[in-house]
Amino acid sequence: MVTEVDHHSVKTRIKEILQANATVFDPTGSPGKLVDCFVGRPYNNAISAHTTPYAFITNDDNLEEMSAEGVVQNDTTTATLHDVKYLIVMVDQAQDGRQVERNLDDIGKNLIQVLKANFELRKPTDSTDPKCSYSFPVRINVFDTTSSGKPLQGRIIHMKLLIHTS
Question: Which one of 31, 61, 95, 163 is separated from 10 by 20 to 30 angstroms, measured CA to CA?
Answer without folding.
Answer: 31
